[in-house]
């Protein structure tokens, strides 16, 4: 589904991503790990059109999407989240959902359409909000949501776009263990609905629990790849995280 | 007594014209992400385009080159188009910039345009301006009653701009503009193109403001470059901040309260010396109101309100989710 081939990204003289390649097959959940500054988010930015690769190619669903803008990538069915959960603060939860809906996207070219969203669209949005425990907040401004609710809203609104692939940037960051369990369940449910995932996170336990395969990065380069367990037990990866110690459990 | 009424109606007409511009600015800044400090550009472009299209050819003492003498309704359409095209041209370079830089560039463009009105005599008759312009429906009533006719026309124009800007801000396109206002990066992940969306919004605001410029010509029966200084932009911003950014009601209220404070003192019959003092006083009054508003109601008299939809039943939604195997 997603093929990244020999992608490099330079910011002036600094190499953020160095000849990085990865693949994600349909229905997979793939992890991308590495310490701060390893280049994970930079790679995310290249894949999702937020940064232009200095070299290399990105293919999505068989199409070369290298150099596509962020909106074009999103329209092609690849959505991303951000390290800090964000929303449109001074819009209601329902408006946040509608902005991501296909119905809104189709109505946008006309400046007057979409003031009264179709019943089916509102019902679909409410169903997704019910799944993520936000139905009661549908009419509230997003600026009034608590951080865990905002995290859930990220998933709920992404579903409105019926994405083929979701790129999650540190979904478990700042999340308590109970909510992490929730996240894992939701990601599993979305996978059963046909969504493919690429997940960046520092929380190796979280990565181990949800990912089929993983890639590890350091200094912008790939240092390990394969089944998640193998990558997490890779001596280079252990050295990277623990500075020479051993044991994934400690992570 | 009739004098007071006529004055009030005249002030009301001016407030309605400012109201149109404030609504257009609210569309850009309240609904969308555009901090436009050059909205007077389109006001001036609309006014001059209308005059050039509808005025009779220049006579001896005037020097503008054109004067097509077209019907007024064509002039209004032409003004709206000119405003839209001007917005497109100004938007091409300036919408590439971030918020604060966009603000500076639009302010600069407004000043460039004012200099153009002053210096391009062949087109605008320079600082002397173009005057003796006709007003719509003028022949229908006697001169004294015309103030009421113009007021009614301005209110119709205001209602039209209010309805259109409201429809736009509530539409899917309006939601995309609000999304850009709130968080551009996130809006991009929703497939919203920031530049294209902002350009459409800017062009629409340009067209609405240009139409308001036509009403301003009807109100004054002349057009001179001095009418289109950046003071007007700041007045409109002040009105919007007083009323409430992001609220149509606030934009309208702000425009009327601003004009009331700014122009009502003109009615007082005082000596020349006192008049100068009062002129300074009105600016101080508006400044004081602005400070009080920012201190005690930072979101304006009528802050932006939530958009309410008739939401489906929550229990049904939960059932629906289960039925589809989502929950």
UniProtKB/TrEMBL annotation, chain A:
Keywords: ATP-binding, Hydrolase, Nucleotide-binding, Transport
PROSITE patterns, alphabetized: ABC_TRANSPORTER_2
SMART domains referenced in this protein's UniProt entry, alphabetically: AAA (SM00382)
SUPFAM superfamilies cross-referenced by the UniProt entry: P-loop containing nucleoside triphosphate hydrolases
CDD domains xrefs: ABC_Mj1267_LivG_branched
Signal sequence interval, chain numbering: none
Organism taxonomic ancestry: Bacteria, Pseudomonadati, Pseudomonadota, Alphaproteobacteria, Rhodobacterales
Record-given protein name: Lipopolysaccharide export system ATP-binding protein LptB
One cellular-component annotation, GO: plasma membrane
Entry's EC annotation: 3.6.3.-
One Gene Ontology molecular-function label: ATP binding
Enzyme class: hydrolase
Alphabetized Pfam families for the sequence: ABC_tran, BCA_ABC_TP_C
Nucleus is among the record's keywords: no
UniProt entry tagged with the keyword Nucleotide-binding: yes
Automatic annotation (TrEMBL), chain B:
Keyword Nuclease on entry: no
TM region(s), chain numbering: 6-27, 34-53, 65-89, 146-165, 199-219, 234-262, 274-294
Gene Ontology CC terms: plasma membrane
Subcellular location(s) of the protein: Cell membrane
Keywords: Cell membrane, Membrane, Transmembrane, Transmembrane helix
Pfam families from the UniProt entry: BPD_transp_2
An example molecular function term from Gene Ontology annotations: branched-chain amino acid transmembrane transporter activity
InterPro entries hit by this protein: ABC_transp_permease, LivM-like
Coiled-coil segments on the chain, per record: none
Membrane topology: Multi-pass membrane protein
Keyword match ATP-binding: no
Protein name: Leucine/isoleucine/valine transporter permease subunit
Organism: Pseudogemmobacter humi
Lineage, top ranks: Bacteria, Pseudomonadati, Pseudomonadota, Alphaproteobacteria, Rhodobacterales
């Amino acid at each position: 589904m997603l093929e990244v081939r020999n992608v490099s990204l330079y910011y002036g003289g600094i190499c953020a991503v160095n000849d990085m390649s990865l693949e994600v097959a349909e229905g997979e959940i793939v992890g991308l790990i590495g310490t701060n500054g390893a280049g994970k988010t930079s790679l995310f930015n290249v894949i999702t059109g937020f940064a232009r690769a200095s070299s290399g190619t990105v293919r999505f669903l068989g199409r070369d999407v290298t150099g596509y803008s962020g909106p074009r990538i999103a329209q092609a069915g690849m959505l991303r989240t951000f390290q800090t959960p964000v929303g449109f603060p001074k819009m209601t939860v329902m408006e946040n959902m509608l902005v991501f809906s296909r119905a809104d996207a189709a109505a946008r070219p006309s400046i007057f359409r979409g003031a009264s969203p179709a019943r089916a669209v509102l019902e679909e949005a409410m169903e997704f909000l019910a799944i993520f425990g936000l139905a009661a907040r549908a009419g509230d401004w997003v600026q009034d949501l608590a951080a865990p609710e905002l995290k859930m809203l990220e998933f709920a609104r992404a579903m409105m776009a019926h994405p083929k692939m979701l790129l999650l940037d540190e979904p478990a960051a700042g999340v308590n263990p109970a909510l992490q369990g929730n996240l894992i369940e939701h990601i599993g449910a979305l996978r059963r609905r046909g969504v493919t995932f690429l997940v960046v996170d520092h929380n190796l336990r979280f990565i181990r629990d949800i990912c089929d395969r993983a890639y590890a990065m350091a200094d912008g380069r790939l240092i390990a790849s394969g089944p998640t367990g193998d990558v997490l037990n890779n001596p280079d990866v252990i050295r990277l995280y623990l500075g020479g110690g051993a044991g994934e459990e400690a992570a | 007594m009739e004098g007071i009424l006529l004055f009030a109606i005249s002030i009301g007409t001016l407030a309605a014209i400012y109201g149109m511009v404030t609504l257009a600015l609210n569309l850009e800044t309240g609904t969308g992400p555009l901090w436009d400090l050059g909205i007077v550009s389109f006001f001036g472009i609309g006014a001059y385009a209308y005059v050039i299209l509808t005025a009779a050819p220049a006579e001896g003492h005037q020097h503008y080159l054109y004067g097509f003498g077209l019907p007024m309704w064509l002039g209004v359409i032409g003004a709206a188009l000119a405003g839209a095209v001007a917005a497109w041209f100004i938007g091409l370079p300036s919408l590439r910039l971030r918020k604060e830089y966009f603000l500076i560039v639009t302010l600069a463009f407004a000043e460039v345009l004012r200099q153009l009105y002053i210096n391009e005599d062949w087109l605008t008759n320079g600082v002397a301006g173009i005057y003796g312009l006709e007003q719509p429906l003028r022949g229908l009533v006697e001169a004294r009653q015309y103030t009421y006719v113009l007021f009614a026309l301005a209110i119709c124009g205001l209602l039209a701009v209010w309805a259109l800007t409201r429809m736009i801000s509530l539409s899917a396109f309006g939601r995309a503009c609000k999304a850009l206002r709130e968080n551009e990066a996130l809006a991009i992940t929703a497939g919203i193109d920031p530049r294209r969306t902002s350009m459409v919004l800017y062009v629409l605001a340009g067209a609405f403001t240009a139409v308001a410029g036509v009403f301003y010509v009807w109100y004054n029966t002349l057009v001179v470059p001095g009418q289109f200084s950046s003071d007007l932009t700041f007045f409109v911003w002040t009105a919007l901040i007083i009323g409430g950014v992001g609220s149509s009601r606030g934009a309208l209220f702000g425009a009327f309260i601003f004009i009331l404070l700014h122009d009502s003192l003109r009615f007082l019959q005082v000596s020349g010396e006192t008049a100068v003092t009062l002129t300074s006083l009105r600016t101080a009054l508006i400044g004081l109101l602005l400070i009080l508003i920012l201190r005690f109601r930072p979101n304006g008299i009528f802050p932006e309100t939530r958009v309410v939809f008739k939401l489906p039943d929550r229990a049904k939604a939960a059932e629906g989710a289960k039925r589809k195997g989502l929950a």
